Amino acid sequence: MDDKKKLVIVIAALAVLLVVSVAVYDNYKDRVDPATGTVVTGDSQAMGEASAAVNTLSPAPDFTMQDASGKSVKLSDFKGKPVVLNIWTSWCSYCKAEMPYFESAYKQYGDKVQFVMLNPVKSERSADGGKNFIKSSGYTFPVFYETGGKVLSQYGLRGFPSTIFIDAQGNLVSKNVGAITQAKLNAGIQSLLGS
Predict the structure, then answer these.
(1) Which of 5, 9, 31, 77 has its CA 20 to 30 A from that of 107?
(2) What is the pTM (predicted TM-score) of this model?
(3) Is 37 a domain residue?
(4) CA–CA separation, 138 vs 18, rounded Å?
């Protein structure tokens, strides 16, 4: 066999290998997180919905964030009132899709439950991505910004959006990783209120 034929065979084999690799990647780029059962894409954005009740109540990890005016606030500052903590980014389509549910729940329960709509700034694709999204959306729920970049690891999360339900004593009650439905959000809030 001459060198030209060998070269053609090698190139054809590499092309087949490339096509097979792309097909395998497309099938397996979405992975299931074994801890939560949530499907997580290659860029770690959670898809679908996975929730888990916490078996033993433990204190919610505390962290510092900034409110819309830039004032530093700690999660523990809200102790004494149940907290719904939602972690979102402006580039996450699932986060955007569930925002109206939080707006509705805030209007219904905002006097009984502290909503913490938390944008981890280091997860944004631009410095003001979260702020610009909220400014243009017209939502009225309270928005906070976490600049330390640690909240995801503190809560053992790997994707967006994620919703954490915290009781009035500051204990983790349950978490929902991935998009949440209006019914599930309302049920989580009602469980915090004991109704």
Answers:
(1) 77
(2) 0.72
(3) no
(4) 47
